[in-house]
Amino acid sequence: MNGEPEVHEEFEARLKAYEGRPAAATGAGRDPVNEPMIRHWCEAMGDTNPAYTGPDAIAPPTMLQAWTMAGLSRRPERTAAYDELLGLLDESGHDAVVATDCEQEYLRPLRPGDEITFDSVIESVSERKTTKLGAGYFVTTRTDIRAGGELAGTHRFRILKYAPARRPKALNAPKERRPRPVVDRDNAGFWEGVARHELLIQRCTGCGTLRFPWLPGCNSCGSAEWDTVEASGEGTVYSYVVMHHPPFPAFEPPYAVGLIELAEGVRIISNVVEVPYDKVRVGMPVRLCFRRYDDELVLPVFQGVTR
């Protein structure tokens, strides 16, 4: 099967046996429905509907899932059955995952002060499907969300657990070019600096605040006047991700993408290089360098400094 996992009827029957089993036992929202979260949501979405403010405010219906989320911690309500299902798929070679879609049904509005409870069930496991990403199984969970014990809505969430497709590389295929940065009148000076192997940070001449990325005005005082300072090049990894899949032309996964905190206090997103991707860590010191990718493109990247 060209290196893909072999599939048996017995295996698919084992997967189907998980349908109807709990994915999460009865859980409770970490916070009641509340005005600050509603306000933050509306600001992020640019939603100015007056129904979401005032003494009779309701929560935006599409916030339904937000009241059940656990943040960065693992949900204690998650069941062994759901972990077993995902483990079975991992062991069979379907170890990549992508969220595909969700469906929501709204039965009654949620209002500040509502206490949220919920439970989830493994609603369905599809037959093996072939997609551009690879062949695998769609797993759908359904979460029933209650306010004060009354059903308020339903959230269906679907993921694809798949074995990544292996794409043969054409012989003598031309090397793909990396995407070009978007250069406009607001950031042209930054890219001119990069061409000279300088990493320039904007500095407001009104209040002295440094800012990055480049902006036409100061977020602190509103001044449109600015000059630049050249970054020393020293920094640390503030956060990072490792890109494994899907592959993009001109990029060779896995590779580390870091949010780098410069010594000057601003942060920039770039690749972490010259150190294995699995050795990158938060707090790792890095040093600026410039890498040429073709005749036109030079980018600032950061060398990891191991201790």
From TrEMBL:
Lineage: Bacteria, Bacillati, Actinomycetota, Actinomycetes, Kitasatosporales
Location of the FAS1-like dehydratase domain: 27-148
Domain ChsH2 rubredoxin-like zinc ribbon: 191-226
Domain ChsH2 C-terminal OB-fold: 229-291
Organism in which the protein naturally occurs: Streptomyces azureus
Any coiled-coil regions, as ranges: none
Protein name, UniProt field: DUF35 multi-domain protein
InterPro entries referenced in this protein's UniProt entry, alphabetically: ChsH2_C, ChsH2_Znr, FAS1-like_DH_region, HotDog_dom_sf, NA-bd_OB-fold, Thioester_dehydratase-like
